[in-house]
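User: Predict structure, ligand norvaline.
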Amino acid sequence: MAIRHYLQFSDLTADEYAWIFQRAALIKAKFKAYEKYHPLADRTLAMIFEKASTRTRVSFEAGMYQMGGSVVHLTTGDTQLGRAEPIEDTARVISRMVDLVMIRTFGQDKIERFAAHSRVPVINGLTNEFHPCQILADIFTFIEHRGSIAGKVVAWVGDGNNMANTWLQAAELLGFTVHLSTPSGYEVDQSVAGVRGPASYKVFKDPQDACRGADLVTTDVWTSMGYEAENEARRKAFADWCVDADLMAVARPDALFMHCLPAHRGEEVEAEVIDGPQSVVWDEAENRMHVQKALMEFLLLGRVQG
Ligand code: CP
Ligand code: NVA
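Assistant: Predicted complex:
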């Protein structure tokens, strides 16, 4: 089988997503029933973190152990990556010893270079440009609560960042629409997302207009990892891009609220929304593990049955 990497959401087809969502539901049901499922026995996942993480680390690490495999956790500080060993050499070495690699890093070019020199599949655990595993979990969570996302409207309120880029790719592939509202200067760059547009997304100056009639309202931190130097400027620019009860009120009455977490209550979202009845953020976080187990199974074993 040819190596498949998962570096951006557009690396899989709509048909493959349908398969992975179905497998994720089955693997989740096994987990809930305490049923042993060890398709990745003797397989090893290397996880390389160049940025902090709670969910990504725990979901990949726990998920891999639950599937019978093991993990190696690496950071920039405790590897030669922090002492300028080329990423290409690191990829050649690590991929001779493990079966799968997950990387969280800065520029997308870095993960692309790693993948180009890897003998094993590489998964994007977040870059400045994309966060495909998170959107995989978010769409699975939407399906669990509301059924198919095709034809639905997702309102994105806030930064035109890695999450926003990935939502655009998902909309184009899976047939839904993203309503984007970002402060000026923080718009999504269509060329980074690599989408044709504008059929799958619409841009709104006012976040109220973006949320009107939406099936899902979602946001993210004002300052992503790696952009901390812009913190003060962002605080000012994003002040009106906070998901509160007024914004949720113009969305559909059954609209869901999502946030990839970590969240800052009182900044991008008010506590009454994230801790309120429309919020599914804890399901989203848990589902990271279930969908990533299905993703790892697919990348290593293809379409397995049972
Ligand atoms: N949502 C997410 O990726 O969380 P972590 O940064 O904690 O991994
Ligand atoms: N956009 C955020 C997501 C964190 C999971 C960041 O890149 O820091």
